[in-house]
Automatic annotation (TrEMBL):
Top-level taxon of origin: Bacteria
Region ranges (Disordered): 160-182
Residue intervals of the Glucose-methanol-choline oxidoreductase C-terminal domain: 428-552
Keyword Flavoprotein found: yes
UniProt keyword terms in alphabetical order: FAD, Flavoprotein, Oxidoreductase
SUPFAM superfamilies: FAD-linked reductases, C-terminal domain (SSF54373), FAD/NAD(P)-binding domain (SSF51905)
Entry-linked Pfam families: GMC_oxred_C, GMC_oxred_N
Biased composition (Basic and acidic residues): 162-173
Naturally occurring in which organism (per UniProt): Salipaludibacillus neizhouensis
Family: Belongs to the GMC oxidoreductase family.
UniProt protein name: GMC family oxidoreductase
Manganese found in the keyword field: no
Length: 579
């Protein structure tokens, strides 16, 4: 029997970047907020020990325990989905701060083209550029409207960077200067300039200098130790929710954090969310937390799963193309090229998660697609994230997997290889979606989330084009041997690729085709907000975190408006739609 607790004004499900931003912004305005986090508490002090690559990068200390909850996967809907037993293609995080603890810190803004992709594509290339099986949708908000929220997130996180003519336009400079130039980033920039491209230093959540943000929180200067991705920062120099928004929320006295609180259901009665049900993972007790406003601020997969398991919203049906929950799941396409050098050696071991250089000449619609068989593109970059000893052994593709030649090539190229990579946009397809699995359940008896996903012709065409461009840059960098990346026949969930999953609770201006409005408020349930990359109508050519942060600040503003205006936010947004 669940114990019903005292009602609170707002409850958030998940306390990472989005949950932390919502809590901080609301608590600063005197709103009582309870944050439920199913993982354990952690802080900078927890990482102040010898770097342990095996513990964090190999054994995934900060990631979800798949023996308790996982997802099932299939390429096509006529296949049976099977559970993901080991973390592979993407890493599902867990614990206070979420992925904001173990991210690399690369913090881009999605382009104006991204937010109005349907309108802009059709105006320039017509309505049949891709075909009817692709689902292009505008986000229901323009870049000009979202720009102030991008900057607010960058101020909170102290992002280090420099402007670039092909990136999203900015009203203000980055809060801190770009990170250090290295021989590797300079070589990439020189090669890009020789090819008439416009390189710039990657925007970074690993800060170039000590910084105090507008809330009075201090983020320290990066030490370039090379242990960012999959690790927490022992210096407090990688911007994370744990050193920014969570302390800001806590110091107000209006925020209560509960860890080990695994939410299993959003309680839905009379057309409104009345609270959530959760299990205390330490005691096994079940609780009901009533609330005036419920905010889902967990990872993409869990936002979708909670709605489906709670019977909220209309599940997407790929056959009829109706419904919205689970629709427009997108991943990311990863073109690129590896270069091998005969004489020169590179120190790739010092670095940081966002130490790198990028070009946006082939991102969004920055280049003409009239005679191309795909839309969008991706950011091309070289990163110096810090190669670690266990997972680093790059050799040419034709090298045997064992024996004398394997050892010889491994030693020869240990310091003589570089890679240029691309984060390619992912365009939604009717057959790529999220749903509940009819067979498999988690440890508590709730259905697992099922992922149905495979590469499309759009993906392959984009991959091949941008791989060729990456190889051109690598050749210009002086590599004696260049190996372009290949895309497999089908997507596989086994090898790690990227954790940039998006979609499933998408944002838009029409309740028939989207799940939330541009304040991340559900069309069907006015006091339920769903915040995060689950709102992306497609996945762009960048890391998602900067855009997630902007949407979270926009959502916090919307929640305050809804609270202050006695539930009139739905009317306000609908009036804007029909204006």
């Amino acid at each position: 029997m669940a114990t019903t607790l005292d009602k609170v004004e707002v409850v958030t499900v998940g306390v990472g970047w989005t949950g932390g931003i919502i809590a901080a912004e609301l608590a600063k305005q005197g709103v009582q907020v309870v944050g439920l986090e199913r993982g354990k508490a952690r802080s900078t002090e927890d990482f102040q020990h010898i770097h342990d690559e095996y513990r964090y990068a190999i054994r995934y200390e900060l990631m979800q325990d798949l023996s308790r909850e996982t997802i099932t996967f299939r390429n096509h809907r006529d296949e049976r989905a099977l559970p993901m037993r080991q973390l592979g293609s993407f890493l599902l995080g867990e614990g206070l701060g979420g992925a904001g603890v173990h991210w690399n810190g690369q913090t881009y803004r999605f382009l104006p083209y991204d937010l109005q992709i349907k309108t802009m594509t059709e105006e320039k290339y017509g309505k049949n550029k891709l075909g009817e099986d692709y689902i292009l949708q505008d986000w229901g908000i323009s870049y000009e409207e979202l720009e102030p929220y991008f900057y607010k997130f960058e101020q909170t996180a102290g992002i280090s960077g420099e402007d670039n003519k092909n990136s999203a336009p900015r009203e203000n400079d980055y809060p801190t200067p770009p990170m250090k130039e290295t021989p590797i980033t300079k070589r990439f920039k020189d090669a890009a300039k020789n090819l008439k491209l416009s390189p710039y230093h990657m925007p970074s959540g690993n800060l170039s200098e000590n910084y105090e943000n507008p809330d009075g929180q201090t983020i320290n200067q990066c030490q370039y130790c090379g242990f960012c991705e999959r690790f927490g920062c022992e210096y407090g120099a990688k911007s994370s929710p744990n050193v920014t928004v969570i302390p800001t929320a806590e110091k107000t006295g209006k925020f209560e954090l509960r860890t080990h609180a695994n939410v299993t259901e959003v309680i839905y009665e009379g057309g409104k969310a009345t609270g959530v049900k959760y299990i205390d993972l330490q005691t096994g007790e079940e609780f009901i937390q009533p609330a005036d406003i419920v905010v889902l601020t967990s990872y993409v997969m869990n936002n979708v799963r909670l709605l489906l398991n709670s019977g909220i919203g209309r599940p997407y049906d790929p056959e009829s193309r109706t419904g919205v929950i689970g629709k427009n799941y997108c991943y990311q396409i990863l073109p690129g090229a590896t270069g091998f050098f005969e004489e020169e050696k590179f120190n790739t071991y010092m670095g940081a998660g966002s130490l790198g250089a990028s070009v946006d000449d082939y991102n969004g619609d920055n280049f003409d697609h009239s005679n191309l068989d795909f839309i969008h593109g991706g950011v091309i970059a070289i990163t110096q994230t810090g190669k670690r000893p266990i997972n680093n052994n790059t050799a040419p593709n034709d090298t045997p997997n064992w024996g004398k030649e394997f050892k010889s090539q491994s030693i020869k190229y240990y310091h003589r290889n570089l890679a240029v990579g691309v984060q390619g946009a992912s365009i939604p397809h009717r057959n790529n979606y999220l749903s509940l699995d009819p067979e498999y359940e988690d440890i508590f008896g709730y259905p697992l989330l099922r992922l149905t996903y495979d590469y499309t012709e759009q993906d392959r065409n984009l991959h091949n084009y941008l791989t060729e461009k990456s190889a051109e840059i690598m050749k210009e960098m002086g590599a004696s041997r260049v190996e372009p990346r290949e895309i497999s026949d089908h997507y596989s969930i086994v090898p790690y690729q990227t954790t940039h999953n998006t979609g499933g609770v998408i944002m838009g201006g029409d309740p028939e085709t989207s799940a939330v409005n541009n304040y991340s408020q559900m069309w069907d349930v006015e006091n339920l907000f769903v915040v995060g990359a689950s709102a992306f109508a497609h996945n762009g050519g960048y890391n998602p975190t900067g855009t997630v942060g902007a949407l979270a600040y926009r959502a916090a503003e919307g929640i305050l408006k809804y609270r202050e205006e006695s539930g009139q936010l739905v009317k306000i947004v609908n009036d804007r739609k029909h204006a």
